[in-house]
Amino acid sequence: MLARLFLWGSLWLWGSGLGHLLAVPLPLSDTATISLLTCGPGSETYALFGHSALRIADPLRNLDRVYNYGTFDFDTPHFYWRFLRGDLRYFLSATSFQAFQRAYQQENRALSEQVLALHPGEVQRLYDRLEATRHSPARFYQYQFFADNCTTRLFELVRTSAAVPLRLDSAHVPSSRTFRQLLAPYLAPAPWLNLGINLGLGWPADQPTTFRQRLFLPTELQQAFARADRQQRPFVVRTRQLLVVRPHLLEQEQPWWTPTLFFSGLGILMLMAQCLPARYALIGRGIRRALFVGVGLTGCVLLGLTLFSLHTPVQLNYQLLWLLPTHVGLAFAHPNLRWRRYATVSLALLALGGLFGWGVYYAQLLPAVGLLLALLLLQLLLFKRQAPTS
Q: Residue 29 and residue 299: Cα distance in Å, rounded?
C-alpha cells in the first residue's frame, strides 16, 4: 500500500541516522520549482477521492522529492474507531518522485502536475518549512476529512509561503453546492459506501459550502490553482499529465449486490410472507426482526457518531428521527399497549424524518433510501395490527 511505503521509508531514514542530516534544508538553486501533484481516485476506500502532494525539483542540487500529508499507519490501535471519531493522526512524509510516480502507475491511477509560479525565495521558504515540519513533532496532525486533510494542508502551506498573495477566482463555482453534493460523483462507483456515508452525514453536510471549504477535494484545489493568478499573471506556469489511466487494466466488475437490489428483494420476501398461511407466520416475524435489528444497529452507529465524533458534518444527524436505536428492542417485543404506542410514535417520526430529508438529499440515494423507508413503514404498520398481548 502506498501509505505503508511512505511510512516504512520514513522510518528507515530515521533509523539509519540520516534524519539529523536532512533536518538542515539544502539551499536550493534559482532553477528549483514546486509543483502540485493531483492524483486520480483509486479502488481502495481511502483513495476514492484522490490525493494531493507537492513536488520540489532542483536539477542542479539533484533533488526531486514529493511531500505528502496523507500518510497514516494502519497498525494504529483502534484505527477505524479513531478515523470515525476524527482523532486519527496523519503525518507529513517525503519520498522520491520516481517512487511516488511508480506507485501510482502500479495502481493505474491518473497523475497530473501543475508547476507553480513561485519566486526562488518563495520556493526556498516553502521547502524550508516542509523540511522543518518533517523533522519535528509538528509533522503529526489530527486528520479531519472536510477541514484538515492532505489537500487543505498543502493549500495553506502554499498560500502562507507566497510573498505575493494569490487571487483565487471563485466565479465559476456554484454557491449552492453542499458537502454531500460534492462527494456524490466520487461515491457513485461504490453504492454501499455511498449509502453508508450519506446516512452518516448530518445537517452540517447539507449547508452550502464556501469556495475555501471546497478545497478539501484534490480536484477542487487543482481547478482553483488553474484559475488563480498573482499580479494578473497565471499562478500555474505549466501543466503536465504524468500518468493516464489505462482502461484495459481497470477492474471491469461492477457491484451487482447493490442496496437497491437488496431492499427490493427484502420487500418481495415481506410481501410473499404476508401471503403464506398462518402456520408460516414465523417467517414473516423473522424478516421483521431482522429489519428492526438492522435499523436499530444502524441507529446506534449514527448516535455514536453524533455524540462522540469530532467530524462536524456527522453531527446533528436527522436520520435518527427514523433510524431509531430502540428498534433493536422492538424486534423482540410483544405487541402490548406500550410497544404499540412506541410503534405509533415511530411512524410519526418516520414521516417527519422522511419529509425533513426528502428535499435535502434523498434524490441522491433513491431508490435505496425510499425502499428502506417503505419497508420500515410497512413493518411498523404490521406490528401495530398484531393482536395485543397483556
A: 58
Instruction: Give the integer Cα–Cα distance in Å for 236 and 240.
Output: 11
E-strand ranges in the chain read 33-39, 51-58, 63-71, 89-96, 111-116, 140-142, 229-230, 233-234, 236-243
Task: Report how far residue 173's alpha carbon sits from residue 291's, in angstroms, rounded to the nearest whole number.
Answer: 42
DSSP 3-state of 326: coil
- Parallel, antiparallel, or unpaired: how do β-strands 140-142 and 111-116 relate? unpaired
The closest of 188, 183, 198, 182 to 298, measured between CA atoms, is: 198
Which tens digit of pLDDT belongs to each residue from 143-166? 888 889 999 999 999 999 999 999
DSSP state of 162: -
| DSSP code of residue 280 | G
- Rounded to whole angstroms, how far apart are CA atoms 175 and 339? 46
For 236-304, the DSSP string reads EEEEEEEE---GGGS--PPP-S-HHHHHHHHHHHHHHHHHS-GGGHHHHHHHHHHHHHHHHHHHHHHHH
Query: Hey, what amino acid is at 109?
Result: R
| 8 A C-beta contact, residue 296 and residue 326 | yes
Give residue-wise pLDDT tens across range 93-124: 999 999 999 999 999 999 999 999 999 999 99
Backbone angles phi and psi of 340, in degrees to 5: -70, -35
Return the closest-CA partner of residue 23 out of 133, 119, 112.
133
CA angle 378, 289, 300 (to 5 degrees): 95
Which positions of the chain have pLDDT values less than 50? Answer: 1-22
Residues 6+ apart with CB under 8 A from 59: 31
Which residue's C-alpha cell is 412506541? 342
Closest CA to 331 of 373, 275, 374, 383: 383
Instruction: Identify the CA nearest to 180 among candidates 197, 164, 155, 166.
Output: 197
Q: What is the DSSP letter of 57?
A: E
Closest CA to 9 of 59, 63, 73: 73
Strand partners, 94: 67
Q: Which amino acid is at 32?
A: A
CA 138 to chain CA centroid, Å, is: 24
Looking at residue 148, the DSSP 8-state letter turns out to be B
Query: Residue 166 phi/psi, 5° resolution?
Result: -80, 150
Phi, psi angle pair for 202, to nearest 5°: -105, -160
Residues making up the chain, counted from first to last: 390
